[in-house]
Design a protein that fits this description.
The protein is an alpha/beta fold. The chain has 14 helices and 21 strands. Among the domains are: 4-136, Rossmann fold (3-Layer(aba) Sandwich); 390-443, no CATH class. It has helices spanning 13-28, 54-74, 86-91, 94-98, 114-122, 137-143, 172-175, 184-196, 224-231, 252-260, 277-283, 289-302, 321-334, 361-384, and strands at residues 4-9, 32-33, 42-47, 80-85, 104-106, 130-132, 154-158, 160-161, 180-181, 201-205, 213-215, 221-223, 239-243, 267-269, 307-314, 338-343, 390-400, 404-410, 415-420, 428-436, 440-443. The model has no long low-confidence stretch (mean pLDDT 92). Bound molecules: iron/sulfur cluster (SF4).
Length: 447
């Protein structure tokens, strides 16, 4: 009988990409994906370490898997439990100690070794528990399946991993290791396979995507700007995006790409974290608010209609009311159209972990709520602007009710819904907007 696996993914787009690759590995081994717990011969959790309570989340998930494993055992069915991703990397053997029923712990740079790790468990070799925490992104990418079974209209493509920046609050340099950029040829080949399978939009991913410096043709180093020019030549690829960018790594070729490559969408996620230079310095972000605003203006000169989203950390140790006000001022200047904002949470292993926290939780919550209300009003205003106007939408999802509901994203990354009589999946339509909401838009049916 066909063996099945279930996978649960936490965290960012890079984890989503990794989970897609893990699925491809398991398909190749003859497994089929399932959403039913009791059918899962392999249970895999791909973890994320960025936010607080990552560990608690993992162990609470493992508690559920333990019960499933026990129930399946009553019916003589064995279950392989795998913990992958950044928490696996950070916790390592500790996971086996706290959850002895886990069979495999595999870090974010070593999941290409899953076939042999699973084989060891299946063959009931003496080594019952398997652990792989190597930092070897090159060997990972070299050994991942090249073919692409899953077909997506909008696909992620990881071009760069790891980070050398060491922002004081961040675990990425410790869990994903130093920066690694994939060679240009490998990325172009993967992009061609994706477009051959129906992908119309590629979102280039990296922890520090614009620090990309892969080997290009003639062994010359390529940056992200140059890579985008190359990718844009793929005929059936209609849209290109990239994330997550660091302000410090915006470069001349990338500005030029925003100006000249029409396939590069006019939406950029550029995290600032705080509007206070004092806090930016304390975080080791290596840019000032003034430099950030210069970059924003520079990109706007290249592409007039470009809009921005950002990340904000509220209540970083030492943040005064005045620092917080400066963050609000910055938001007024840029008018971000989307954003992610969180209260600072200390991550074990980072340099900021032991900093004295002087701000009361209530105060932090209040600041977050003020900030989020401001961000929300800019997002709502932006969306309202488009009522009775038209947007270019790539429809990447459908659900069948009485009429077909299609969903997709505008060039500015707004979620757009429309009910049609015919399916427009995979098509880019210039569509009139009927209603606007905080986080989405509703379009007038085409037919
Ligand atoms: S640049 Fe991004 S990934 Fe790198 S340390 Fe800073 S926050 Fe983390």
């Amino acid at each position: 009988m066909l063996k099945k696996f279930k996978i649960k993914t936490f965290g960012c787009q890079m984890n989503v990409y990794d989970s897609q690759k893990i699925c491809e590995i398991l398909y190749k081994l003859g497994y089929k994906k399932t959403s039913i717990d009791r059918d899962s011969d392999i249970f895999l959790i791909n973890t994320c370490h960025i936010r607080e309570k990552a560990k608690q989340k993992l162990y609470s998930e493992l508690g559920k898997i333990y019960k499933i494993k026990k129930n399946r055992l009553k019916n003589n069915l064995s279950t392989i439990c795998v913990v992958a991703g950044c928490v696996a990397q950070a916790e390592g053997k500790e996971i086996f100690k706290r959850a002895p029923f886990v069979d495999i712990v595999v870090g974010s740079q070593a999941y290409h070794k899953l076939p042999s790790l699973i084989k060891n468990i299946n063959l009931k070799l003496k080594k019952k528990l398997s652990i792989e925490l190597d930092f070897a992104p090159k060997s990972k990418f070299d050994n991942l399946p090249k073919e692409n079974i899953q077909k997506e209209i909008s696909s992620y493509l990881t071009i760069q991993e790891g980070c050398n920046k060491f922002c004081k609050f961040c675990v990425v340099p410790y869990t994903r290791g130093p920066e690694y950029s994939r060679p240009v040829e490998e990325i172009i080949n993967e992009a061609k396979i994706l477009t051959k399978n129906g992908t119309k939009e590629i979102i280039l991913l990296g922890q520090n995507v614009n620090a990309y410096h892969g080997v290009g043709p003639n062994k010359k180093e390529f940056n992200l700007g140059k890579l985008i020019y190359f990718l844009a030549k793929i005929k059936n690829l209609k849209r290109i995006r990239y994330m997550t960018a660091h302000p410090k790594d915006m470069h001349e070729d990338l500005f030029k790409a925003h100006k000249n490559v029409k396939k590069l969408m006019p939406f950029l996620h550029l995290p600032i974290q705080s509007g206070s230079n004092k806090i930016l310095k304390a975080m080791n972000r290596n840019y000032t608010v003034e430099e950030y605003l210069k970059i924003i203006n520079r990109i706007k000169k290249c592409r007039e209609d470009i809009v921005f989203s950002s990340d904000f950390i509220i209540g970083y140790p030492g943040e005064t009311k005045d620092d917080f006000k400066k963050t609000l001022n910055l938001i007024d200047k840029v008018k971000f159209v989307q954003s992610f904002s969180f209260i600072y949470s200390p991550r074990p292993g980072t340099t900021a972990y032991n900093l004295k926290d002087t701000i009361k939780q209530e105060e932090k919550k209040e600041r977050l709520s003020i900030l989020q209300n401001k961000l929300k009003s800019y997002q709502e205003d932006f969306n309202k602007n488009f009522v009775k106007k038209s947007l270019n939408v790539l429809f990447s999802n459908t659900s069948n009710e009485k009429k077909i509901q299609s969903m997709g994203y505008s060039q500015y990354m707004q979620l757009v819904r429309v009910k049609n009589k015919i399916d427009i999946l995979g098509k880019i339509k210039n569509i009139k907007i009927k209603k606007s909401f905080y986080k989405s838009l509703e379009a007038t049916p085409l037919i």
